[in-house]
Amino acid sequence: MKLATGVVNDHISYLDNGLLGAAGFGSTYLVRGTELAIVETGTSLCAPDVLAGLAQLGVRPTDIRHIVLTHVHMDHAGGAGTLARQMPDANVYLHSLTIPHLIDPSKLLASAARALGALFPAHGTLEPLASDRLYPAEELRLDLGHDVVLQAIYTPGHSPDHLSYLDLASGAFFTGDAVGVDLPVYRYLGPVTPPPAIDVDLQQRTFEQLLELPIKQLLFSHFGPAQADPHSVIEQLRDRYTQFTQLVRAGVEVGHVDEAAILRTMLKTDDLPDDAAWVLAGWINMSIRGMTRYWSKQ
Ligand SMILES: [Zn+2]
Question: Which architecture does CATH list for 5-297?
Answer without folding.
Answer: 4-Layer Sandwich (3.60)
